[in-house]
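Key result, reporting period 2: structure in, sequence out.
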């Protein structure tokens, strides 16, 4: 025995970690198999009955009566929803996520090509895996859009090994019309054998068919079971969502429980949700539990967050299953019906146990990637004269943004009196002025919003335009709110009666906080209380703020062009 041991010590492939006696969920065969699992470096090196890879320094862990499931994959995530990618990942990797496919939108808009490439490389060094989808177009029209989102820049990004898809294409009506640039990007993406992600909210069956023909391969925007069926039947993958904005996953999953569709082309996501939602419910563990409680076979449910997204992105040789050669990502469960992990292993390392992160993630040099000084390049202050709507008439018929849901608006034309050359909102509590201001003060666009509540001055740099959105009835308070946002280099600020009544600093690019998720959840609750007390009637104010300047949700928005009818692309004010 001594001689054999000495001979074996010359081997180079000893396992670093050896998990013995556990039951593996094999997502390839659909079986639950009692077997050993060896991990060498970042990869699984063996799955089977043998113990030959156990050496003197191998860490052997008894997994008797435990279930080993591949690490969870979120196929569609926006890691800039007031939290930043590090704070989010540290919060959720103890809940089982080992791979994220992330939106590059605001990072790219604020960093440009070269700095964003460095940013992706920095995140490739994290304990969990970050991959990215590259936007073909922004979510809000930009003055410099053609330069930043040029074909040259986009093709360069898509060539990166960290970028796995072109997505999400929100301007789907332009795809149907044959937009040359987007069409070329779709064709180029397919030459790289990468995916094209869609955002087909509002598209009817025949329109979905045209989008599928144009090369769109997935959608995460189905809001009814019928829309899920339409997209599946027309060849798309469908990402089913449960988020802070809309909790309707149970309704969407009826395509499985009632229509008995195959689940191979279904995936699950929380898309992006407000911090308190994650604190209250969880993330992938939460949506897995919903699906299991719906009566769907747990094996099929776990496949929706493991092998299905891996296959979609053409990465099933790397991630998504427990098999030799794949990244050693797995979660240890006590019960298949309870998806909250006891242990999380990612890239071959135990990174979380009993719901706790074992070590903090490496720091990212935010000062380099998003310097505070870059928030505004001009040293300027807002004055009350920037706000309000000017007219030389006695009254004016104006296009009002009527907020009817957190992110849905309707266009209403209303008549207002004009006093001293400025539109007067009257004594009612329904209307506020709404303004979008360039961070450097280069342009200002004013309008009127209805249904937001009644605030004196409220300013936020958290939006898809990456500019400063302002809402209020008091022009002095609106200016004070903007100036405080400029002073703290980004954030959400409410001003009332000459004092700051609410403040959430967002020092990372004016979009993200450097605080942990639990603190952000509390600040979100404070924001909800602040706005609710002033008449805001909805449940998710962050979503309202982020989407008011966008260019794809109905029906009327504000952007650098002014007040715009999204359906017709007509500028309604100024005319």
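The corresponding designed sequence is given below.
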């Amino acid at each position: 025995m001594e001689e054999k041991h000495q001979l074996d010590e010359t081997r180079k492939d000893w396992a670093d970690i050896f998990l013995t006696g556990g039951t593996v969920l094999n997502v390839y065969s659909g079986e639950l198999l009692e077997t050993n699992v060896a991990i060498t470096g970042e990869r699984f090196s063996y799955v089977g009955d043998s113990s030959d890879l156990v050496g003197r320094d191998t860490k052997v862990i008894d997994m008797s009566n435990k279930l080993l499931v591949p690490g969870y994959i979120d196929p569609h995530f926006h890691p800039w929803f007031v939290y930043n990618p590090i704070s989010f990942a540290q919060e959720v990797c103890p809940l089982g996520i080992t791979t994220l496919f992330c939106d590059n939108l605001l990072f790219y808009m604020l960093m440009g090509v070269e700095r964003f490439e460095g940013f992706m490389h920095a995140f490739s060094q994290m304990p969990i895996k970050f991959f990215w989808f590259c936007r073909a177009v922004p979510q809000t029209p930009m003055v410099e859009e053609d330069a930043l989102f040029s074909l040259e820049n986009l093709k360069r990004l898509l060539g990166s090994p960290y970028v796995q898809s072109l997505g999400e294409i929100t301007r789907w009506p332009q795809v149907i019309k044959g937009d040359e640039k987007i069409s070329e990007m779709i064709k180029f993406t397919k030459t790289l054998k990468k995916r094209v992600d869609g955002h087909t909210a509002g598209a009817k069956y025949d329109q979905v068919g045209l989008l599928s023909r144009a090369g769109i391969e997935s959608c995460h925007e189905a809001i009814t079971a019928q829309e899920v069926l339409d997209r599946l039947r027309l060849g798309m993958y469908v990402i089913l969502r449960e988020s802070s904005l809309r909790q309707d996953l149970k309704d969407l999953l009826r395509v499985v429980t009632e229509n008995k569709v195959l689940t191979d082309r279904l995936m699950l996501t929380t898309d992006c949700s407000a911090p308190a939602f994650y604190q209250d419910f969880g993330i992938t563990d939460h949506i897995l539990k919903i699906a299991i409680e719906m009566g769907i076979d747990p094996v099929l449910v776990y496949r929706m967050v493991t092998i299905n997204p891996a296959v979609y992105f053409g990465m099933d040789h790397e991630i998504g299953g427990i098999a030799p050669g794949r990244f050693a990502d797995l979660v240890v469960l006590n019960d298949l019906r309870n998806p909250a992990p006891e242990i999380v292993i990612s890239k071959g390392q135990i990174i979380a146990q009993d719901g706790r992160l074992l070590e903090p993630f490496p720091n990212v040099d935010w000062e380099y990637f998003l310097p505070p000084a870059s928030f505004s390049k001009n040293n300027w202050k807002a004055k009350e004269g920037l706000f309000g709507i000017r007219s030389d008439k006695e009254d004016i018929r104006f296009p009002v943004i009527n907020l009817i849901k957190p992110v849905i608006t309707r266009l209403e034309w209303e008549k207002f009196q004009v006093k001293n050359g400025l539109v007067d909102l009257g004594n009612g509590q329904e209307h506020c002025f709404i303004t979008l201001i360039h961070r450097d003060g280069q342009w200002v666009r004013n309008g009127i919003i209805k249904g937001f509540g009644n605030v004196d001055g409220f300013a936020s740099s958290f939006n898809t335009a990456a500019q400063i959105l302002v809402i209020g009835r008091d022009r002095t308070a609106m200016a004070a709110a903007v100036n405080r946002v400029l002073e703290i280099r980004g954030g959400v600020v409410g001003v009332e009666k000459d004092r700051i009544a609410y403040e959430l600093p967002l020092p990372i690019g004016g979009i993200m906080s450097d605080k942990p998720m639990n603190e952000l959840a509390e600040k979100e609750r404070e924001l909800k209380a602040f706005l609710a007390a002033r008449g805001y009637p909805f449940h998710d104010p962050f979503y309202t703020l982020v989407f008011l300047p966008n260019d794809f949700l109905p029906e009327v928005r504000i952007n650098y062009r002014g007040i715009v009818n999204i359906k017709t692309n007509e500028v309604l004010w100024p005319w």
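Residues 372-573 form one domain. The radius of gyration is 25 Å. This case is discussed further under Risks and Mitigation.
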